[in-house]
Input
Amino acid sequence: MDPTEKSVYLTFDDGPIPEATPYVLETLARYDIKATFFMVGDNIRKHPDVFQQVVAAGHRIGNHTFNHVGGFRWLSKNYLANTLKAQELIGEENSLSPLFRPPHGWMRPLQYRIIRRQGYRIIMWDLVTRDYSCRLTAEEVLENVKYYARNGSIITFHDSLRSIDKLHKILPAALEWLLEQGYTFRVFD
Output
């Protein structure tokens, strides 16, 4: 992205979860913001209706493996198989330029090369809010957004059980602050 363009990419990891994802969707709709959701395949399998809500709302979908597996703990062929299993559930409408985010940001160099060879665009982040952390308050998570957001930031929240209480408190405040600062919101092509 052009570093002079005042835009950010808003992303959510680990869903879809019925206790969290609908709230995120409602909040994004209230502000007319589109985001990218990096989804865990097993959660799509368990909650296909919530997955379809995200798709129907026009958000971008990315692959976050089937079982939220860290690459350092898996053989590369098994890691790829887990990724492809998730992609089957994500479906064809998201396969033209499939996005992938490794859980925890961990993957071996060989896994990186294999995933890229499969046609995936690997998306990391530069601002992980740590909304899942039991060591941070909601206010501290919001301060992370305010302190680290910059032009082109890829901001990562989580639509998960561990983060939903904090999201109720800070997601609208974070979006309002970003809008007040003049940021627009982009999704990945």
Q: What stands out?
A: The chain has a mean pLDDT of 94.
